[in-house]
Specification:
- This protein has a single domain, classed as Rossmann fold (3-Layer(aba) Sandwich).
- It is globular, with a radius of gyration of 16 Å.
- Strands 2-5-1-6-7-8 form a six-stranded parallel β-sheet, sandwiched between helices. The chain has a two-stranded parallel ribbon with strand order 3-4.
- Helix 8 links the parallel strand 7 and strand 8.
- With 226 residues, it is of the alpha/beta class.
- The model has no long low-confidence stretch (mean pLDDT 93).
- It has nine helices and eight strands.
- The termini are close together.
- Helix 1 runs parallel beside helix 2 and helix 1 packs across helix 9.
Length: 226
């Protein structure tokens, strides 16, 4: 597999946590991967290492500063809003074609695996004209769908799978995360999802460290890239 597009059923499902775990395992195996975060919002310029792009850079073994963030992140905004809304409030125009060119150019230069991490959920807008699902389709990458357990999550997960499948983007796996210490156990949600889908399911249990994967990174990475 050349790479993967990491998306989710909604926000706060741990896309960056899972992406970083995959990156760290690939790097430890001598297969350095490139991570790209097309748009990012809700970050502090003085705390770049804790931003989504910063954590991806650290997982790749790279330094974190404004220049390196700009190498993997096309546009970033301080306000914690949907990227297209944050862009409008900042007076910035987001041209989808330019975003696509940014990503394709960097993907073409990298010879190893590539992870592209979306923003928000499957149908969350990236610009005023295109959503994550549009980007996944245009990049042609296999989709990894993240979900977490909460009331209504089964419906949200099956809805995401349905819309992805209709666009010929059926997920290659669903990763069920535990984003907080009081989150419902991933195993319980996986048992329920097995009643409704044959897509391979993996658990990403809660880990207190910001980039502590508790071993699941190896399992997911092996399933994705062998």
């Amino acid at each position: 597999m050349r790479g993967a597009f990491i998306t989710a059923i909604g926000t706060d499902c741990g896309k960056t946590h899972v992406s970083a775990a995959i990156l760290r395992h690939l790097r430890s195996a001598g297969r350095p991967a490139l991570a790209l975060k097309p748009v990012m919002s809700g970050y502090s310029p003085d705390q770049l290492e804790t931003s989504d792009a910063g954590r991806l850079l650290l997982a790749m073994g790279r330094t974190v500063d404004a220049a390196t963030v700009g190498e993997i992140c096309w546009r970033s905004f301080v306000e914690p809003l949907a990227p297209n809304v944050a862009a409008r409030r900042a007076g910035v125009a987001l041209a989808y074609a330019d975003m696509l060119s940014f990503l394709r150019e960097r993907m073409a230069r990298h010879t190893g695996p590539v992870l592209v991490e979306g923003a928000g959920g499957v149908m969350s807008p990236l610009t005023d004209t295109h959503t994550n699902i549009d980007l996944a389709q245009d990049l042609g990458l296999p989709v990894v769908l993240l979900a977490s357990s909460y009331l209504g999550a089964v419906s949200h997960t099956l809805t995401a799978v349905d819309v992805l499948t209709r666009r010929h983007l059926k997920p290659v796996m669903i990763v069920v995360t535990e984003p907080s210490v009081d989150a419902s156990p991933a195993a319980l949600f996986i048992d329920e999802l097995r009643r409704w889908t044959a897509i391979p399911l993996y658990a990403a249990p809660f880990a207190p460290g910001i980039d502590d994967s508790r071993g699941y990174g190896e399992e997911i990475t092996t399933a994705l890239f062998g």
